[in-house]
Amino acid sequence: MKGADSTAPLALGLAAALGLLADGLFPAGPEGAGFALWILFLGVAAVTVARRVDPASAGAVGGWSAVSTAAAAALLLRDTPVVIPAMWLVMLASASMVLLRAGGVRLWTTRPVDHVVGFAAVPARAALGTIALAVDAQPPPDSSRRRIAAVLRGVVLAVPLLLLFGALFAAADAGFERYVERFAALWLEDLLAHLAVIFGFGWIAAGLLSGVRAKRLPNPFTGFTPPRLGSGETAVVLGSLAALFLTFVGFQLGYLFGGREVIEVTSGLTVADYARRGFFELMVVGLATVGVLLVGDALSSARRLFRWLAAVLIGCALVILASAVQRLMLYTNAFGLTVDRITAAVVMAWVAAVLVLFAVTVLRDRPGRFSSAAVLAGIAAVFVLALINPGAMAARSNLDRAMAGAREADVAFLSHLSADAVPAILQRVDELPPAAQCELGRSLLDRWGDAPYGGHDDRDWRGWNAARSAARRAVQVSEARLTAAAHDC
């Protein structure tokens, strides 16, 4: 790649700046507004390197960097636990797409195996890419800066080894450990913490930027020819699955259209037990069907037969997902919404979208469009999950059912919801029985109030989160009535 070596010093310099920036933006770890800003600057650095290496890829790198920044920004809006790892997954997917594009793989020509390689490449680059970048940044032999560069590379390589063996020696010998602790207590404790942040995040940034410079993304599956399945194998494997699916769907159609009475008479279960027993199993069936179809597409040489049987499996799987949705609705009507049930509904919608995408791409001889479309659909599903605010939805559902007399308010459940649910809880808390008000009021004050009940403080703008800030303000506004309700606990 022409000019690639000249970009190595630029990438190292940007990574060093990002390490210093991390030390200033992460007072208590990578979270809040500081983390979103760091991801934004990492994206800017990636685009800067891409423009120097391959201007044609800079637009795609910038687009995926924007998606990653949007995911980091979404972490500022929500505090629901399931949203946090989902957004990290979006950032991982965005980084993998950047590495794929930099390695010459275009969006609408990807295969499923490309995404597997891309996902694996992100942590590999973050861990090891800095070494390759340091080697590429070596100045020519006649450069006057050769000695300085050699020393800097030596420091980069020596620091993790010193930390590793120093920690092992301290763990092995109590006297050495006390010496290290006294030495650190004098002046190294804060310095080492800052250096660890600078070095750690600078190392990760350099590794990822090395991937932007890569001429190609190593793919261990390149040149691998999988064994092929003929018409006989395809007919037996997919045909037997299709027969099983059709048989099961025949049972489900009666449940779908027969209502509560048919369910109780036919299955011998109550509606609640029926819903509890099969929901997650049917969702797994939908996911497993996608896997079977992907493997079948890669192995089957009987394309016409495969397309017909795959279409039958997709149709059956969609009916099965509809049955899973029905079970989820029945279970929700019986026991109310939870964050897990809302998340499961979003996952099922994504699985259904993937099945439809498989039908309109792979089965119509456009396989290159399927993988990226499935990834984009997954990213969209994660953002939808964040936008609908599952914590607040679950709280409102529980309180509405309690007010309607369907069930008592689940105070323990409400007390453990995240900051996203606090404003919704406070809107209805006065309508609860005194005992529930007492317990819930004390819990809210413990988690989000000020003294004497404790508190949760992220007033430093670098760790600011909109949901936590809104919860704290709402509890402060309602502090007098919550204190009065909690007095009797």
Describe this entry's structure for a reader.
This protein has 489 residues and is mainly alpha-helical. The chain contains 18 helices and no strands. The protein has helices at residues 7-25, 32-53, 55-77, 83-102, 112-136, 146-172, 174-213, 231-267, 271-299, 303-335, 339-360, 368-387, 390-403, 411-415, 422-428, 434-448, 466-477, 479-486. Helix 1 crosses helix 7, helix 8 packs parallel to helix 10 and helix 13 (390-403) packs parallel to helix 15 (422-428). The longest helix is centred in the middle third of the chain and has 40 residues, at 174-213. Residues 451-457 have low confidence and may be disordered.
- The coarse silhouette is flat
> What's the order of the H and E elements?
HHHHHHHHHHHHHHHHHH
Low-confidence stretches: 451-457
Tell me how many strands there are. Answer: 0
Mean pLDDT: 83
Helix segment count?
A: 18
Main sheet characteristics: none
How much β-strand is present in the residues?
under 5%
Helix content: over 70%
